[in-house]
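Hi R.,

Here's the chain you asked about this morning:
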Amino acid sequence: MKIIEALCLSNRGVVSFVGGGGKTSLMFRLNGEIPLSRRVVITTTTKIYMPAADKYPAVMLSGKRPVKKTLQNILQSGARPVLGQRLLPDNKVKGLSAGSLDRLINENNCFADFVLIEADGSRGRSLKGYLDYEPVVPRTTTLLVVVIGADVIGKALDDSAVHRPETLSRMIGLKPGAVLDAENIAGLIIHPGGVLRSCPPGARIVPFINKVDCLQSRDEAYRLAKLLLGGRIRSVILGSATGENPVIDVID
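And the predicted structure, written out as tokens:
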């Protein structure tokens, strides 16, 4: 099964990726699955590395060309632009504010069929604790994909596996160095002060447990998926964003 099928995406959508453990890989894998007939804009409210310019033309708000017209021309050519505020010295794209993206999407409702947004940063970790202003999710989001790196299961609560472990520790009452299991990971994801608090009321929420193919046993990943089900979470995907078969299972 493809990611686009597992996410139940049809012809249009504003998809925001949050969490840790493979957001960028998953976003670009989904982009590769979207039919070429669909117009796609890739962007961020944080920072992402600039992909190959010959495949993904950059459109920066700090440029002199009119952004809306430039985007339209690129999309009409069949290319898929990366939209940002400016290109940073480390070849990263500085993202737009959530409000700027919302205005652009609302004012140009037909300019793209899909807008793919990396709306969170985790410094390469598979899990993170959240500050008050995080994650930065645009209100126009129609689907929030919460990425969880399965490789964090069984790891200690410390800097090697978690971004801001001290914040996570305060949120769910887990002592530093304690072993992370399905129960406390699920508790972090559904915590009212965590990753879901910025989700727009009308958006669907689908957790994607990534890197499942790296586990010796998938029992805890399946237990995590079942613990996440409920409320606004109607399905959970187990998969590997970089694997040959990106979707291993869908739990609903």
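The chain has one domain: 3-41+114-251.

Let me know if you need anything else.
M.
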